[in-house]
Amino acid sequence: MADHLFSPIKLRDLELVNRIVVPPMGQHVCSDGNAADWHMMHLGQYAVCGAGLVIIEATAISPGGRISPFSLGLYSDENEAALRRIVDFCRDIGQAPFGIQLDHSGRKGSREPSWGSRAQIEIADGGWETVAPSAVPWANNYPAPRALDEAGMDEIKEQFVAATRRSDNLGLDLIELHCAHGYLLHQFLSPITNHRDDAYGGSLEKRLAFPLEVFTAMRAAWPKHKPMGVRVSVTDWIDGGWDVESSVAFGTALKERGCDFIVASSGGIAPQQAIEAGPGYQVGFADQIKRETGLATMAIGLITEPLQADTIVRSGQADMIALARGLMYNPRWPWHAAVALGQHAPFPQPYWQSHPSMKAHASGQTVGKFEGPGAKGDGR
After folding, report:
1. Gap between the Cα atoms of 110 and 132, Å rounded
2. Strand pairing partners for 98?
3. CB–CB of 296/316 below 8 Å?
4. How many domains in the chain?
5. Alpha carbon distance 138, 353 (integer Å)
6. Secondary structure class of 139 (helix, strand, coil)
7. Minimal CA–CA distance to 227: which of 191, 170, 176?
8. Does residue 357 lie in a domain region?
9. Which domain holds residue 112?
10. Nearest residue to 170 via CA among 77, 57, 87, 73
């Protein structure tokens, strides 16, 4: 049978029951990087929503790598303990495997959260000095970041490795390395933000060097049987910036180093971007990277309808579908998509009586036969 949205897929030893992915969705409700009670609710609902995989939001590898003062972190024992409480809860109630996205914000750090103004926070107001490959500010009215020297780069690489080990300590199933949306590793990739004249800037090969070093070090620290992928902004949407051909070259190099999948996103490097958005506007990027590198790809971006998502998988344009805002608005999207497509998604037993295959009887009892899989055999 041809692949479809509700067919399984295997990444190394991790088998997903379907191709629906809950992607990282920044919540910005933390204190000192510690996961909050909000995460119990936020991630708990996705643990039982029927998706094949849930990926925890962009998680900073250091205090200075946070996007906002309220970002999630995995750089301390306290962070690890706080996140363990959430992960253990989600594993207990749900069926979905859990991954994590590891990130350093670079020059896009020290900001108000995404649900706020996103304005830069001054050091006097609780912000911090940001870093980048070059001292290029986000915009004219923003402070210039500090250009990293090689000692600073080595420190950041070790912080990525330490967060990788903490992710394994938590029993997480997958890592997604964030090299997109204008954050630090994307800043090294893009000529818009990387103006270096050393071994880490200039040619495409040199701009790839540091992100590849980070990935290689993380892959060596991450168990061989667990998959690891990368989120890439396939284009900057700026003339002279990072583009699809560069992303293909990056994907090819990543595959040689043990990468298992690419999440094909775009944009975020600078305010002058001119994004041409529309339904499924990034699917073509996932398709091209898949065809030209042989890597599994995840499509994301204005994919909202079950038939649209299923068609992308059936046509071979991408192997997995990630929905962020759609799942925020409707956390039961996988259940509804399964019904619309005549398929089954994991469905927890306490909710069986709500399935459309079950009918309410005048006696107050629910009658019918539910044939879909439950989230837990013990009824939880």
Report:
1. 13
2. 54
3. no
4. 1
5. 52
6. coil
7. 176
8. no
9. 9-346
10. 87
Angstrom distance (rounded) from CA 267 to CA 275: 7
Within a domain: 110: yes
In sequence order, what are the beta bridge partners of 15?
10
Catalytic status, residue 183: yes
What residues have CB less than 8 Å from 284, skipping those under 6 apart?
A: 317
Instruction: State the Cα–Cα distance between residues 47 and 89, nearest whole angstrom.
Output: 9
Question: Which of 315, 280, 329 minimizes the C-alpha distance to 301?
Answer: 280
Phi and psi at residue 275, in whole multiples of 5°? Answer: -80, 135
Q: How does pLDDT run across 50-106, given as a tens digit for each residue?
A: 999 999 999 999 999 999 999 999 999 999 999 999 999 999 999 999 999 999 999
Q: Which of 183, 200, 281, 329 is catalytic?
A: 183
Which residue would you say has higher pLDDT here, 179 or 364? Answer: 179
- Contact in structure between 331 and 45 (CB atoms under 8 Å): yes
CATH number of the domain that residue 16 is part of: 3.20.20.70
Which residues are 181's β-sheet partners?
none
**Tokens at 178, concatenated:** 């964030």
| 361 assigned to some structural domain | no
User: Which single residue is written with the structure tokens 């992308």?
Assistant: 312
**Using an 8 Å Cβ cutoff, are 42 and 81 in contact?**
no
Q: Is residue 365 part of a domain?
A: no
Strands (E), 292-349: 296-300, 320-322
Q: How far apart are CA 271 and CA 294, in angstroms?
A: 32
pLDDT reading at 217 higher than 50: yes
Give the pair of three-digit tokens for residue 181.
Answer: 């949306």
DSSP state letter for 359: E
Which tokens is 206 given? 């040199």
CA distances from 194 to 119, 136, 199, 200 (A): 22, 8, 12, 8
- Let me know how long the chain is: 380
Rg (CA), the chain: 21
Report the predicted TM-score, pTM, of the whole model to 2 decimal places.
0.94
Residue the block writes with tokens 């205090």: 63
Output the six-digit token pair for 292: 């030209």
